[in-house]
Amino acid sequence: MVSAEPSPVVRASALHKSFRRDAETVHALRGVDVEVTPGEILGISGASGSGKSTLLAVLCGWETPEAGDLMHVGGAAIDLPWSELALVPQTLGLLEDLTIKENVLLPARLIKRTEEYTERGAELMTRLGIDHLAQRFPDQVSLGERQRTSIARALLLRPRLLLVDEPTAHQDHGWAEVVLASFRGYADDGGACIMVSHHRHALDHADRLLAMTDGVLGVPA
Ligand SMILES: Nc1ncnc2c1ncn2[C@@H]1O[C@H](COP(=O)(O)OP(=O)(O)OP(=O)(O)O)[C@@H](O)[C@H]1O
């Protein structure tokens, strides 16, 4: 019997995205092809300004490409419900008026299933070492703790697709290991992760590596 390859959670081809600043046009993505399958961590490296964050923004639907095809699970463009897609942006995106615990549980609150996810939220907070900060506000914790809050929030609903931008940038070695192990656990449970990073150590935890160079994604040199 031939075993079927798992279908990609997202598949993008020939993506183009540019930004206009007055007379200047920046071509951030120039014909990018990418896909990631369940159980896989895809690592993307690349110099600052090469287009990595733009790619994540296009894949999650924040930015619209000028050209190219983008398909999520189900076959149509951007048809993955937002609750099945999570992003940990470089800016972390915490809501300053919510406590750390409320930030972690926010995705469950938005789908009106807070009670169901409260225990998982507590487990994630313990695993990521932010449980003792539950009642603090984001401006009362460290940057590394803020980043782990954003990661716990992203993992809460067990999304099908997890996009993480420099997820170990604010972590010491020990917490970086915990963060990377949490992505591996997520992938082992069938999730698909795209991890953008400058850190060799983080990229060593990926199953497959690609490199972004001036808006073009390819095999690392
Ligand atoms: N909203 C925007 N308006 C104008 N230019 C933008 C915008 N967003 C990104 N750019 C430009 O697009 C290019 C790619 O930016 P992007 O943030 O994707 O790079 P990156 O590889 O993620 O960089 P870094 O590693 O520093 O985060 C850069 O030249 C950047 O200045």
Overall description:
By secondary structure, the protein is of the alpha/beta class. The protein folds into two domains: 1-80 and 160-221, 3-Layer(aba) Sandwich (Rossmann fold), CATH 3.40.50.300; 99-159. The chain is built from six helices and nine strands; from the N terminus they run βββαββαααβαβαββ. The protein has a six-stranded mixed beta sheet, sandwiched between helices. Strands 2-1-4 form a three-stranded antiparallel beta sheet, with helices on one face. β8 and β9 form a beta hairpin. α2 packs antiparallel against α3 and α2 (100-110) packs parallel to α4. The longest helix has 16 residues, at 173-188. The chain is globular. The termini are far apart.
Question: What's the SSE blueprint?
Answer:
Layout: E1 10-21, E2 24-36, E3 41-46, H1 52-59, E4 67-72, E5 85-88, H2 100-110, H3 114-127, H4 143-155, E6 161-165, H5 173-188, E7 192-196, H6 200-203, E8 208-213, E9 216-218
Parallel strand pairs: 3-7, 3-8, 5-6, 6-7
Antiparallel strand pairs: 1-2, 1-4, 8-9
The structure holds adenosine-5'-triphosphate.
